[in-house]
Amino acid sequence: xxxxxxxxxxxxSSNLRRSKAPIPPPYxxxxxxxxxxxxxxxxxxxxxxxxxxSFNSSSSKRLFKTPRLHLGLPNLNxxxxxxxxxxxxxxxxxxxxNAVASGTAPFLACQSCRxxxxxxxxxxxxxxxxxxxKYDIKVxxxxxxxxxxxxxxxxxxxxxxxxKERGYAAEQSARVSDAYRTLTDPLSRAMYLLKxxxxxxxxxxxxxxxxLLVEIMxxxxxxxxxADTQVLNHIQAQIQKQLEHWSESFAxxxxxxKYEEAISSIQRMTYYKRxxxxxxxxx
Amino acid sequence: xxxxxxxxxxxxxxxSAGSPATSAVxxxxxxxHERVVDHYNNPRxxxxxxxxxxxxxxxxxxxxxxxxxxxxQIKVDDETGKIVDACFKTFGCGSAIASSSVATEWVxxxxxxxxxxxxxxxxxxxxxxxxxxxxCSMLAEDAIKAAVKDYEAKRTKDNGSAETPLDKAADx
Lengths: 283, 172
Hints:
Chain A: This is J domain-containing protein. The complex is a heterodimer of chains A (about 280) and B (about 170). Chain A is mostly helical and about 280 residues long. Chain A contains 14 helices and no strands. With about 170 residues, chain B is an alpha+beta fold. Chain B has 8 helices and 3 strands, in the order αααβββααααα. The interface of A and B includes residues 8, 14, 221 and 271 of A.
């Protein structure tokens, strides 16, 4: 469902379609599950069976105490989740030399023998690129991390290795590219965050909000009729302001877990982005 | 204007096809039913009526996931309730443009009660739309209903009278 939506929304997210691995589920431990259940005010969560195995884990009683701590420290949630969610990867072993993963970085390649590891879909894009799982990230830090990974994972580097490892490299390298593209673009980053939270967005939804639609219609007509680049630049500047405004709205709504509002902001951003694409075509 | 539309249409098509713009244009005939291509190249009834005209009903709908926006307007004979003219303006993918173009053709000359029964599946079938593009035809169906509803709302307001049966149908 989400894959289809993303594909129709933006070419940037075509990366998601290419990824062979299933989308990582929006949880990693029972701790996260219980916190979400309590903190969430939205009914749009995935069904409980998705979480049931962690819920039934032997340590569930102990973990039940954790959410209260989170409730008291809402701003630290994402930090706590990030640190928690990296732990399962820490017990991984290299398929080639059997070395234990260090645990400080996502285990995509072995530190000892440099072998590329099989794809682990539970490692999300934020973990891959070493940024906190939130909307307001420093985009300029992503490129360096992305290039670092490609220096270790790129298929060209393993062309003499086994077919198995070449396959791993192809998948890992593609996924790192997906991660980079998805997190670089504000709109696709916003949609990816919602997806990690398990929030469903109805791709077939139709709206009749006259205020928004009249505005979009007027912008698109103005772009179509614009006679010179000066006019187009003027419209583009206005659209840019709107994009920034709704980007902030998304960040606020997402932080306070108002997912309906977050989706509404994403819709606005999609409309402005489309209009901007038309401008770019004409410029 | 027409040239603009054609450029826009081709641009939208390449997006829908998910291929680079350069190759998509060449692949058009194979990817889309000839009727879609026809409505692309010669969109029927593109334009706008004065939305403040009391005989005009305006339907404005959007599909936020694609960033599509569609305006469909009807001009109604007050005496007979017949739709004497229709026009549309759609910014969106090719299927959305073709769907609204077909919709204006179908509503012209019909009674308002009649056009409310136009189903998106009929439009989709007529254009042989693929499943992923069905929501474009839904958008056209929504636009027809919204236009009728808008016209009825205007008339009710002008007459200050009670609801007509059509209002209920439009809400359905």
